[in-house]
Amino acid sequence: MQKILVLDDQSYTLQAYKRYLENHFEVVTTNSPFEAVQFLEANPGGFFAAIVDYQIPGMNGCEVIHYLRAKRVNLPVVLCTGHVKEVVDGLLFDAVLEKPVTKDEIVRTLENLMARAVSEDPSLSGAVSALDEVVMRQMGENARHYDPASASMMIGDRSKLKIWNAWYQIKSVLRRSRKV
Question: What is the Rg, in whole angstroms, of the alpha carbon atoms belonging to the chain?
Fold first, then answer.
Protein backbone atom coordinates (compact mmCIF):
# COMPACT_ATOMS: atom_id res chain seq x y z
CA MET A 1 0.00 0.00 0.00
CA GLN A 2 1.39 3.42 -0.97
CA LYS A 3 2.26 5.78 1.89
CA ILE A 4 0.95 9.38 1.93
CA LEU A 5 2.31 12.19 4.14
CA VAL A 6 -0.40 14.63 5.29
CA LEU A 7 0.46 17.98 6.89
CA ASP A 8 -2.23 20.27 8.32
CA ASP A 9 -2.31 22.31 11.53
CA GLN A 10 -5.96 21.39 12.26
CA SER A 11 -6.35 18.02 14.00
CA TYR A 12 -9.93 17.57 12.74
CA THR A 13 -8.70 18.02 9.16
CA LEU A 14 -5.93 15.46 9.71
CA GLN A 15 -8.49 13.01 11.12
CA ALA A 16 -10.83 13.59 8.16
CA TYR A 17 -8.07 13.06 5.57
CA LYS A 18 -6.91 9.92 7.37
CA ARG A 19 -10.48 8.59 7.33
CA TYR A 20 -10.85 9.49 3.63
CA LEU A 21 -7.62 7.81 2.59
CA GLU A 22 -7.04 4.87 4.96
CA ASN A 23 -8.76 2.35 2.66
CA HIS A 24 -6.58 3.41 -0.27
CA PHE A 25 -3.23 4.39 1.24
CA GLU A 26 -1.13 4.13 4.37
CA VAL A 27 -1.54 7.60 5.89
CA VAL A 28 1.06 9.38 8.05
CA THR A 29 -0.25 12.63 9.56
CA THR A 30 1.43 15.52 11.30
CA ASN A 31 0.58 19.08 12.29
CA SER A 32 4.24 20.15 12.31
CA PRO A 33 6.05 21.23 9.14
CA PHE A 34 9.34 20.37 10.81
CA GLU A 35 8.16 16.84 11.59
CA ALA A 36 6.96 16.43 7.99
CA VAL A 37 10.46 17.28 6.76
CA GLN A 38 11.96 14.83 9.31
CA PHE A 39 9.64 12.03 8.11
CA LEU A 40 10.81 12.55 4.54
CA GLU A 41 14.46 12.92 5.60
CA ALA A 42 14.29 9.61 7.43
CA ASN A 43 12.79 7.79 4.44
CA PRO A 44 12.99 9.83 1.19
CA GLY A 45 11.56 7.07 -1.01
CA GLY A 46 9.01 5.91 1.53
CA PHE A 47 6.20 8.28 0.56
CA PHE A 48 4.26 8.24 -2.67
CA ALA A 49 2.96 11.80 -2.21
CA ALA A 50 2.39 14.61 0.28
CA ILE A 51 -0.75 16.60 1.03
CA VAL A 52 0.09 19.99 2.50
CA ASP A 53 -2.01 22.82 3.92
CA TYR A 54 -1.02 26.35 2.89
CA GLN A 55 -1.37 28.17 6.22
CA ILE A 56 0.65 26.35 8.85
CA PRO A 57 2.20 27.98 11.94
CA GLY A 58 5.95 28.24 11.52
CA MET A 59 6.04 27.91 7.70
CA ASN A 60 3.63 28.37 4.82
CA GLY A 61 2.87 25.54 2.43
CA CYS A 62 5.24 26.86 -0.25
CA GLU A 63 8.15 26.88 2.20
CA VAL A 64 7.31 23.35 3.35
CA ILE A 65 7.28 22.15 -0.27
CA HIS A 66 10.72 23.66 -0.88
CA TYR A 67 12.07 21.70 2.10
CA LEU A 68 10.28 18.47 1.09
CA ARG A 69 11.45 18.75 -2.50
CA ALA A 70 15.01 19.37 -1.28
CA LYS A 71 14.79 15.88 0.23
CA ARG A 72 13.03 14.33 -2.80
CA VAL A 73 12.78 16.35 -6.01
CA ASN A 74 10.03 14.32 -7.68
CA LEU A 75 7.67 14.02 -4.70
CA PRO A 76 4.08 14.61 -5.91
CA VAL A 77 2.48 17.31 -3.77
CA VAL A 78 -1.17 18.26 -3.35
CA LEU A 79 -1.91 21.62 -1.78
CA CYS A 80 -5.19 21.71 0.16
CA THR A 81 -6.15 25.20 1.23
CA GLY A 82 -9.01 27.51 1.95
CA HIS A 83 -6.87 30.37 0.63
CA VAL A 84 -6.44 29.54 -3.06
CA LYS A 85 -6.16 33.23 -4.01
CA GLU A 86 -3.09 33.59 -1.77
CA VAL A 87 -1.21 30.80 -3.51
CA VAL A 88 1.17 32.43 -5.94
CA ASP A 89 3.61 29.66 -6.78
CA GLY A 90 1.32 27.10 -8.39
CA LEU A 91 4.30 25.50 -10.14
CA LEU A 92 5.37 23.96 -6.85
CA PHE A 93 2.30 21.76 -6.62
CA ASP A 94 1.03 18.88 -8.70
CA ALA A 95 -2.55 19.70 -7.71
CA VAL A 96 -4.39 22.34 -5.68
CA LEU A 97 -7.66 21.53 -3.90
CA GLU A 98 -9.78 24.17 -2.24
CA LYS A 99 -11.07 23.39 1.25
CA PRO A 100 -13.40 21.96 2.24
CA VAL A 101 -12.21 18.90 0.32
CA THR A 102 -14.45 15.87 -0.20
CA LYS A 103 -13.28 12.28 0.05
CA ASP A 104 -13.91 11.75 -3.68
CA GLU A 105 -11.85 14.83 -4.63
CA ILE A 106 -8.81 13.87 -2.61
CA VAL A 107 -8.86 10.16 -3.57
CA ARG A 108 -9.38 10.98 -7.27
CA THR A 109 -6.51 13.51 -7.17
CA LEU A 110 -4.10 11.01 -5.60
CA GLU A 111 -5.17 8.27 -8.04
CA ASN A 112 -4.53 10.65 -10.95
CA LEU A 113 -1.06 11.41 -9.57
CA MET A 114 -0.38 7.68 -9.29
CA ALA A 115 -1.56 7.07 -12.87
CA ARG A 116 0.56 9.99 -14.11
CA ALA A 117 3.61 8.58 -12.33
CA VAL A 118 3.11 5.22 -14.06
CA SER A 119 2.57 6.81 -17.46
CA GLU A 120 5.67 9.03 -17.10
CA ASP A 121 7.94 6.25 -15.87
CA PRO A 122 8.09 3.23 -18.21
CA SER A 123 9.84 1.20 -15.52
CA LEU A 124 6.67 1.39 -13.42
CA SER A 125 4.63 -0.08 -16.28
CA GLY A 126 7.13 -2.91 -16.40
CA ALA A 127 6.81 -3.31 -12.65
CA VAL A 128 3.02 -3.63 -12.99
CA SER A 129 3.47 -6.37 -15.63
CA ALA A 130 5.96 -8.15 -13.38
CA LEU A 131 3.51 -7.85 -10.48
CA ASP A 132 0.79 -9.39 -12.71
CA GLU A 133 3.07 -12.35 -13.36
CA VAL A 134 3.89 -12.85 -9.68
CA VAL A 135 0.23 -12.67 -8.62
CA MET A 136 -0.90 -15.11 -11.30
CA ARG A 137 1.99 -17.50 -10.58
CA GLN A 138 1.36 -17.42 -6.82
CA MET A 139 -2.43 -17.54 -6.88
CA GLY A 140 -3.38 -18.92 -10.26
CA GLU A 141 -5.22 -17.36 -13.18
CA ASN A 142 -8.49 -17.30 -11.21
CA ALA A 143 -7.08 -14.48 -9.07
CA ARG A 144 -7.78 -12.13 -12.00
CA HIS A 145 -11.49 -12.70 -11.48
CA TYR A 146 -11.70 -12.25 -7.73
CA ASP A 147 -13.26 -9.18 -6.18
CA PRO A 148 -12.15 -7.96 -2.73
CA ALA A 149 -14.87 -9.97 -0.95
CA SER A 150 -14.17 -13.28 -2.70
CA ALA A 151 -10.38 -12.81 -2.55
CA SER A 152 -10.35 -12.91 1.23
CA MET A 153 -12.33 -16.18 1.14
CA MET A 154 -10.40 -17.78 -1.75
CA ILE A 155 -6.88 -16.83 -0.64
CA GLY A 156 -6.21 -18.34 2.76
CA ASP A 157 -2.60 -17.23 3.15
CA ARG A 158 -2.39 -13.75 4.71
CA SER A 159 0.80 -12.71 2.93
CA LYS A 160 -0.65 -13.77 -0.42
CA LEU A 161 -3.82 -11.84 0.35
CA LYS A 162 -1.73 -8.70 1.05
CA ILE A 163 -0.01 -9.11 -2.32
CA TRP A 164 -3.36 -9.63 -4.05
CA ASN A 165 -4.84 -6.53 -2.34
CA ALA A 166 -1.88 -4.37 -3.44
CA TRP A 167 -2.15 -5.76 -6.97
CA TYR A 168 -5.90 -5.15 -7.06
CA GLN A 169 -5.48 -1.57 -5.82
CA ILE A 170 -2.85 -0.75 -8.45
CA LYS A 171 -4.91 -2.33 -11.23
CA SER A 172 -8.02 -0.44 -10.11
CA VAL A 173 -6.22 2.90 -10.18
CA LEU A 174 -4.75 2.21 -13.59
CA ARG A 175 -8.04 0.93 -14.99
CA ARG A 176 -9.81 4.14 -13.91
CA SER A 177 -7.12 6.19 -15.59
CA ARG A 178 -7.30 3.95 -18.70
CA LYS A 179 -3.64 2.97 -18.46
CA VAL A 180 -4.23 -0.83 -18.32
Answer: 18
39-81 tens-digit pLDDT: 988 988 889 899 999 888 888 888 888 888 888 888 889 988 8
CB-based contact 169:1 (threshold 8 Å): yes
In terms of Cβ atoms closer than 10 Å to its own Cβ (0-12, 13-18, 19+), residue 61 is: buried
What's the DSSP call for residue 87? -
Q: Using a cut of 0.85, tell me whether the model's pTM lies above it.
A: no
Q: What is the mean pLDDT of residues 150-178?
A: 64
- Cβ within 8 Å of residue 119, ≥6 positions away: 125, 177, 179
Give the dihedral sign, CA 70/74/75/77. positive
pLDDT at 4 over 70: yes
Q: What stretches of the chain adopt beta strand conformation (E)?
A: 3-7, 26-30, 49-53, 55-56, 59-60, 77-81, 95-98
